[in-house]
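Ticket #4471: structure export looks truncated?
Reporter: QA, pipeline team
Priority: medium

Steps to reproduce: submit the single chain below to the structure queue and open the exported record.
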Amino acid sequence: MRYLIRAVKYFVQLMVILSLIIAVLIVAKVVDSDISKIFVNGYDSLWQIALMMAAFAAIYPRFGYTRRPALVPGSDEEAQAVLDRVMEAHSYVREQCPGGKLCYRKRSTGDRITRLWEDRITVTRIITGYELEGIGRDVVRLVNALRDSAN
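Actual output as written to the record:
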């Protein structure tokens, strides 16, 4: 279900960005305001573009979100202190999360909006440290920061 929600959010974001670009081009008089003159196939191009964006949106959650382990040595208290320090340094705040997991979200509302409220990093304790799940680029950045701070 989470995958479908992320795909729909990404599709809406892509369509809004595309619409804004076309609107700016029309307002700047770079292109004609008639859709049939903007695109080669006229109005048929709209559903073709939407279909292409839907394909991108359907694929994106598979590659855009990831789960990675982070080696954090030490006792639970020591590892938790390192995790909290790293998350705070990267502008994350802890929030309530069910199921014995830790959840962090971005502190800045602007960051949350640009990530379509999919900014949550879910942290699960594993034997060697933690497993982080969330947006791929953020998870990689946090895993590297945890590795560097643990050494």
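Status: closed, not a bug. The export was complete when the record was re-opened. Leaving a note from the reviewer for reference: Residues 15 and 53 are 7 Å apart (CA to CA).
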